[in-house]
Design goal:
It is built from 12 helices and 12 strands. By secondary structure, it is an alpha/beta fold. The chain folds into 2 domains: 128 residues, Thiolase/Chalcone synthase (Peroxisomal Thiolase, Chain A, domain 1), CATH 3.40.47; 229 residues, Thiolase/Chalcone synthase (Peroxisomal Thiolase, Chain A, domain 1), CATH 3.40.47.10.
Length: 383
């Protein structure tokens, strides 16, 4: 359902550079920047909504610094949906009239053990990556998607991340880099470079307000819709009806989903981006052809334009900040809100070299439960 809530400023810290800070420090750092650049003092914010693994001690410090004894402040514990929930609570607080201005923030870090050639490998038995390996196998076996085509997705991710100053992994790779990387232990045929590297940290902040307040700001980005659903074909993990349903709900009465040209989706394992595509704008029997045509320059990525769209009748730009692989994956709440920030940046025309042309709407997708494929999405737009 279309809302009259706008994001007037949003940013992330540089991902992967705040190991010396606790959650409080990084959340406070990005929060101060957001409030300053949006023109608000903390006393002018009516409610605060934080997601991530913030400890009780850090919560107390935040409350003290924010002086929020008489204001609404909510903490949403670390979990796959915490970032979505924090954003939705802020929207509802504004829609209900309880807040004119709200702040949403998240701060997290992820750590993992084990390494191979200085790149982190997942622990044996990690259920998500085992399932991701099965997803890739089904794409290859049932739909004829080749290893070479799959390898193009992380090449694109790192190429786009190379032009993102906030990305954790700013490096160019080629298809051979992916194909030569080892299989993730216990998750074959998923390869090391087809997943996100799990040592990461970072914080996100954004200032939201009602439609009347938004008139005071240049280029506010409105939250045009929200959708959520769940459901997957138990026999074929690449058939996820909930993605189509969720996107239709988010876009209802605003835009035909087929007209969308900007999508931010989880890609902490390559099959998730392929699943988003094959349940959204690409028919499953055409997925190999689309990937093959899109990544024909994956051996020479320097020939691509930084935004690198999928080869469809209407171009589709996906994970323009480098996604979880290149931008970094501190944790699910922060990663989802990071995707919101990238969409905000694109819609305001401030993405520099990776800017998508003529974009008015962007979709932020979450795939939260790989067993039931619980999905959620926010549609953002400029008016």
């Amino acid at each position: 359902m279309k809302s009259n809530v706008a994001i007037v400023y949003a940013e992330t810290t540089k991902i992967g550079e705040h190991w010396s800070m606790d959650h409080f420090d990084s959340a406070w750092e990005v929060g101060k920047n957001v409030l300053e650049k949006s023109g608000y003092h903390r006393d002018g914010v009516d409610s605060f909504h934080f997601a991530g693994g913030i400890s009780e001690y850090e919560k107390a410090k935040l409350k003290q610094m924010l002086r929020v004894t008489d204001k609404e402040i909510r903490f949403f514990e670390g979990g796959r949906e915490a970032g979505i929930t924090a954003l939705e609570y802020a929207v509802r607080s504004i829609e209900s009239g309880n807040s004119n201005v709200a702040f949403v923030g998240s701060s997290e870090r992820s750590l993992n053990t084990g390494s191979n050639n200085n790149q982190n490998l997942l622990r044996k038995g990690d259920e998500f990556y085992i399932e991701a390996g099965k997803m890739k196998m089904q794409f290859m076996h049932d739909l004829g998607v080749s290893e070479e085509s799959f390898a193009g997705i992380p090449v694109k991710a790192h190429f786009q991340g190379y032009f993102n100053p906030k990305a954790q992994y700013q490096m160019l790779i080629k298809r051979a880099t992916v194909l030569r990387s080892p299989f993730v232990e216990g998750a074959k045929p998923l390869r090391d470079f087809e997943k996100s590297f799990e040592n990461s940290c970072g914080a996100v902040g954004m200032a939201l307000c009602n439609e009347e307040e938004a008139k005071k700001h240049s280029t506010p980005v409105f939250i045009e819709g929200f959708g959520t659903s769940h459901g997957v074909d138990k026999e074929h993990s690449y058939i996820v009806p909930s993605i189509e349903t969720t996107i239709e709900k988010a876009c209802k009465n605003v835009i035909n989903p087929k007209e969308l040209s900007l999508l931010q989706t989880p890609d902490n394992a390559t099959p998730l981006e392929a699943i988003a595509l094959s349940n959204f704008r690409v028919s499953r029997n055409e997925i190999e052809e689309v990937l093959k045509n899109t990544f024909k320059n994956a051996d020479e990525p320097e020939k691509q334009t930084p935004s690198w769209s999928y080869a469809l009748d209407k171009p589709l730009f996906v994970n323009t900040d480098g996604g979880d692989k290149a931008a970094g994956h501190p944790g699910y709440p922060t990663s989802y809100l990071r995707r919101v920030v990238e969409t905000f940046t694109q819609l305001r025309g401030e993405a520099n070299k990776r800017q998508v042309p003529n974009v008015k709407h962007g979709l932020v997708l979450s795939i939260d439960d790989y067993r039931e494929m619980s999905t959620s999405a926010h549609l953002l737009g400029v008016r």
